[in-house]
Amino acid sequence: MPTIRKATLNDFDAVYPLFSRFNEPRPSKEEFQQLFIPRWGSDETHVGFILEENGQAVGYLGTLFSVREINGRREKFCNLCTWIVKEEYRSEGLPLLFQVLKMKDVTVTNFTGNRVASILTKFDFKALDKMLKILLPIPTSGDGCELIFDTSRIAPFLDTHDRRILEDHREFKHPFVLLKAKDGVSLICFNKVKRKRLPVLEVHYLSERNVFLKHIRHVLLSLCMRTGALGLMVGEHFLGGESIPFLMTIPQRQLRLFRSKTVSMEEMDTMYSELQVLNL
Predict the structure, then answer these.
(1) I want to staple 186 with a disulfide (CB 3.0 to 4.6 A). Which of 161, 162, 179, 219 is the partner?
(2) What H or E segment, with its residue span, contains residue 59?
(3) Model confidence over 222-255: pLDDT tens digits?
(4) What are the residue ranges of CATH 3.40.630.30 in the chain?
(5) Which residues are registered as beta bridge partners of 190?
(6) What digits encode the pLDDT tens for the residues 54-67?
(7) Residue 8 — φ and ψ, nearest 5°?
(8) Which DSSP category does 26 fall into?
(9) Across the strands, what pairs with 49?
(10) Residue 205: other Cβ atoms inside 10 A
């Protein structure tokens, strides 16, 4: 009968063959190995849970732990990633999830949850955004704001909270840009994705919502021209119910799920996750 144990960095070679079940485009072996490195201030030394039988890995649920400051509070997060179980052991896969859910005072996230949403929602997981807004780049007159892409130039403008987010993700491929205005700055992390085969920028984090909402229109055309995108895609929860002209509303294609007793939807983002580590 299969057993479950905690996984560590030394278990990567045993678990890696399971990742061949991922659909294309599949991250490289080196990228998958990044999931087995504890980081982001957590005191947890394990990186997931292995389902084993006769010494062979037949299932795995990855966990990326982080400790973050949310509105002045210290919050522990666990991002679920790479939940894989061999077909003949599917009935044994749910106990892997139970290992995570029994942890106390942890906000659990799953940002690639389409295939497991029907399971997770039974355990109080909520969808972060059911609808997305795509801001379209309409030419506007300038208001004195600018975009800064060089992370070495960005850092001096940031408070301690945002500087840590920047530093914690510097090694990954999701870019940052600073919207610098006369009345403040907004740090934005994004990556380029395709929706209906068209390139758009998906926002994973933004700070200072008021600065973003007030000034993004004046720099969006420049941002899109630099990145080769046709718009900026933002989850509804980032906007706080504010209305912005010249946008499209589309359904969220890839569910972003979370479960928390202490972090609200408005305080959530999709950082510190497999999205950055695997460049998804």
Answers:
(1) 179
(2) strand 56-70
(3) 999 999 999 999 999 998 877 777 888 998 888 8
(4) 3-128
(5) 203
(6) 889 999 999 999 99
(7) -125, 180
(8) P
(9) 6, 61
(10) 20
pLDDT at 92: 86
Q: Say which residue, 144 or 220, is predicted with more confidence.
A: 220
Amino acid at 166: L
- What is the 8-class DSSP label of residue 170? T
Where residue 121 falls (left for φ over 0; alpha for ψ -120 to 50; beta otherwise) is alpha
What strands, in cross-sheet order, belong to the sheet with 232-235? 146-148, 176-181, 184-195, 198-206, 232-235, 131-135, 247-251
Closest C-alpha to 44, from 70, 20, 66: 66
Q: What is the C-alpha to C-alpha distance for residues 143 and 174, in angstroms, rounded to an integer?
A: 27
CB atoms within 10 A of CB 152: 7
Percent of the chain with pLDDT over 90: 75
Calpha distance 244→138 (Å, rounded):
12
Q: Which residue has the tokens 């301690």?
A: 160
SS3 194: strand
Q: What is the architecture, at CATH level 2, of domain 131-251?
A: 3-Layer(aba) Sandwich (3.40)
- The helix/strand/coil state of 115 is helix
Site of tokens 């659990």: 108
* Burial profile 226-249: b = 16 or more Cβ within 10 angstroms, e = fewer: ebebbbbbbbbbbbeeeeeeebee
Q: How far apart are CA 129 and CA 150, in angstroms?
A: 30
